[in-house]
Amino acid sequence: MLAFVRVDLRRERTERVDLPALVDSVGGDLADLGHAVSAEMSERVVVGARPTALRRALRNLLENAAIHGGRAVARVLRVEGGCVAVVVEDTGPGIPESEQGRVFEPFVRLEESRSRDTGGTGLGLAIARTIVRAHGGDIQLENMVDGGLRVTVVLPEADSG
Q1: Between 51-69 and 19-32, two packed helices, what is the crossing angle to 10 degrees?
Q2: N or C: the chain end with fewer CB closer than 10 Å?
Q3: How many other CB atoms sit within 10 Å of the CB of residue 6?
């Protein structure tokens, strides 16, 4: 499956993408499906991206947060070094630090947060990371002090013009 994602990435052309608009669209799609997802948008931030692939990565992250974390809130902001971040926070139990690296491996499912009812193949985070890294970015996980998980996607901002 990850090999398919890599091939698919090579086929799609890179475009200038309004990142807050994309995050808002993905959040709206998931909210329409009954997921507790909201987006707090900022100023217009543009990235060079393969829009279908990046949409898939963001959907995987937001849907995962909503299903396994109860509620997901996404924000887009500029960070240092000419980069932008998509920050997704949920209200769930978080992920044990010892498991945070492992959740990006294909077919890994944390049994406490996964059941036959919630489904999942264990590919969503692996696919998201593959896509984000193909865009020159990365994904970081962090348990928040008051509970919940913070997922931060860092991507290079597109040159203006």
Answers
A1: 50
A2: C
A3: 11
By the 10 Å C-beta count (0-12 exposed, 13-18 middle, 19+ buried), 82 is classed as exposed
Q: Which residues of 141-155 are buried (b: 16+ CB within 10 A; e: fewer)?
A: bbbeeeebbebbbbb
Fill in the DSSP letter of residue 59: H
Quote the pTM value: 0.85
pLDDT of 116 over the 50 cut: no
pLDDT tens-place string over residues 39-58: 887 778 999 999 999 999 99
Q: What are the tokens at 13?
A: 């052309």
Domain annotation for the chain: domains and CATH numbers: 2-156 (3.30.565.10)
Q: Hey, is 101 helix, strand or coil? A: coil
CA 65, chain centre distance (Å): 9
Instruction: Report residue 150 CA to chain centroid gap.
Output: 10
Higher-pLDDT residue of 113 and 139 is 139
β-strand partners of 85: 77, 154
